[in-house]
Amino acid sequence: MTIRLARFATAAGLAALLLLGACAATEEAEDASAFRDFIEVTELKSVQAIRTFGALDHEVLNDEYVVVTNRDQDYLLEYWGSCAKDPFTLRVKPDVRRDARKMYVGIDTFRGCRIKALYELSPDQVIELRNMGMAPGEKPRQTRGEPSVIGSVR
């Protein structure tokens, strides 16, 4: 009797884990498609390189998209795939750049992941991207000038 109960508990636990994993994967896919739709609908201007001026501020939107800011302009950076922290060390991977003053699409990395595309953003588009996927009445993400999750990359 106890063996059957243990097997049932193990099977129920595995089923719950699989269900939670499937829900998380679906939510991430919906986020990525929302960002792709935003790029297409707003017809964002694609650029091949940006000046870094020695430092970039960034805000991670999800594992595939980041808002990057140099001192002149905001950009939406898209990775080739999911770019998460290293699961073993929980640290962001180091960058590979061919030029200390510019960041190039397809060649360089940001937060250790290869850059697929860069798009110019207006300040209004940055706010819209920050608030994308939020429920009505949910507290909006902080904006520039306030203490925020935006980190500086040097």
Structure description:
There is one protein chain. It is built from 2 helices and 9 strands. Strands 1, 3, 4, 5, 7, 8 and 9 form a 7-stranded antiparallel β-sheet that branches. Residues 17-27 and 143-154 have low confidence and may be disordered. The chain has one domain (45-153). It starts with a helix and ends with a strand. The longest helix has 41 residues, at 2-42. 32% of the residues lie in helices and 25% in strands. With 154 residues, it is α+β, with helices and mostly antiparallel strands. The radius of gyration is 19 Å and the shape is globular.
Summarize the entry for a quick read.
The protein is an alpha+beta fold and 154 residues long.
Shape: globular
- Class from helix and strand fractions: alpha+beta
Oligomer: single chain
Catalogue the unreliable spans: 17-27, 143-154
- How many DSSP E strands? 9
Radius of gyration: 19 Å
Mean pLDDT: 75
Structurally, how many domains make up the residues?
1
Give the strand content.
Answer: 15-25%
Helical segment count: 2
Major sheet size, sense and barrel closure: 7 strands, antiparallel
Secondary-structure element order, N to C = HEEEEEEEEHE
Beginning-to-end CA distance, first to last residue = 61 Å
Determine the fraction of residues in helical runs and give it as a percent range. 25-40%
